[in-house]
Amino acid sequence: MLILRQSDVRALVEGREREITQIVADAYAIHAEGATSLPHSVFLRFPDRPRDRIIGLPAYLGGPNPAAGMKWIASVPGNIGRGLERASAAIVLNDVVTGRPDALIEGSVISAKRTAASAALAARLLTAEPAPEAVSLIGCGVINLEVLRFLRAELPQLVRATVHDLDPARAAGFARRATDELGIATRTVGTAAEALAAHRLVSLATTAATPHLDLAPLAPGSTVLHVSLRDISVADMLAAQNVVDDTDHVNREGTSVHLASQASGGTGFVDAEIGDVVRDPGSFRRDPDRTLIYSPFGLGILDMALAAHLRREAGAKGLGVQVDDFVS
User: Fold this and answer.
1) Which of 87, 156, 178, 211 is at a distance of 20 to 30 A from 96, taking alpha carbons?
2) Half-sphere exposure (CA, 13 Å, Cβ side) for 204?
3) Looking at residue 320, what DSSP letter applies?
């Protein structure tokens, strides 16, 4: 058993946004080919704390570098007020032949990176011309900072950002980091409507449990990276073009896709899955007059793909802690 701490993981992923996005794209393509096993995520909830949850994502990814295991990720929004990150996670990788546990890897960094890579991949594949030079980000936490980092790598022409958060101080700190660390000129605005109106590319990464945004301020042909999944109203979902990572997986747990499918009687409003677009970019056509919403549920195969890649690299570089007698 190899144990990789957060410091090990960070050392392995730093500055490798393009490579990570390609790993995510390859995993989506393998999923579209049917070479995966992906049970539904398991949500452990707390009766007296409805916003808190721990999610188990089991997954098997086939292809040239098969991987199997499970991510166990906690989301506790109240941790932010405690001076802790909202999310914490561990990933267990299993040997795909024997099933024996092979690695225990700190998972929050992997989870954030693969989430951001998925959003940046969608932005590159799905945004309407001309290519965006700016992005609006609603929700100024770890995920949107990573989304911005990956967008900069995938969209080199992107040089400006507008950000909004319910906590103005949090937004201001985010803007400073985006400018100082990423070289992106970043400004804050006081309302979500201002952020939506500012640019044609928008990333939503909030902790909202129910829809709260009105997309009316968006310009025609805007692209919304709906990373947090529960921000957008049924009416706006049904009026937009919709791309998801997996229709079955995202159509549950009160996501905006789920609410829209309940209201409309099915998922016919979903236009494409991202794996099919990766395999054949010409299979999906943007309507320049409609908003496109990308809603990625967050598939465990992405965690397995990146974790297995890092496990191989860590072994070659001698990183991590080896426990030889974990399984006797």
Assistant:
1) 87
2) 27
3) S
Compute the chain's Rg from CA coordinates.
Answer: 19
Q: Give the integer Cα–Cα distance in Å for 150 and 34.
A: 27
Tell how many helices (H) and how many strands (E) occur in the chain. Answer: 11, 16
Q: Report pLDDT for 258.
A: 98
Q: How many CB atoms lie within 10 A of CB 194?
A: 14
In order of their start, the domains of the chain are 2-110+300-322 (3.30.1780.10), 126-295 (3.40.50.720)
Report how far Cα 16 is from the mean position of its chain's Cα atoms: 16
Does the model's pTM come out above 0.90? Answer: yes
**Average of per-residue pLDDT values in the chain:** 96
pLDDT per position as a tens digit, 75-128: 998 898 898 888 899 999 999 999 999 999 999 999 999 999 999 999 999 998
Among 188, 192, 197, residue whose Cα is nearest residue 170: 188
- CB burial string 3-21: b at 16+ within 10 A, e below: bbeeebbeebbeebbeebb
Q: Phi and psi dihedrals of 88, rounded to 5?
A: -140, 150
**Amino acid of residue 180:** D
Dist CA 322 CA 311 (whole Å): 12
Per residue in 263-319, pLDDT (tens digit) is 999 999 999 999 999 999 999 999 999 999 999 999 999 999 999 999 999 989 999
Q: Report the SS3 class of residue 21.
A: helix
Half-sphere exposure at residue 61, Cβ-oriented, CA atoms within 13 angstroms: 28
Tell me how long the chain is. Answer: 328
The answer to whether the beta carbons of residues 91 and 69 sit under 8 Å apart is yes
- Name which of 279, 260, 278 is nearest 269 in CA terms: 260
Contact 167, 193 (CB under 8 A): no
Phi and psi at 33, nearest 5°, equal -80, -10
Ramachandran category for residue 274: left, alpha or beta (phi over 0 → left; psi -120 to 50 → alpha): alpha
Residue 277: count of CB within 10 angstroms of its CB: 22
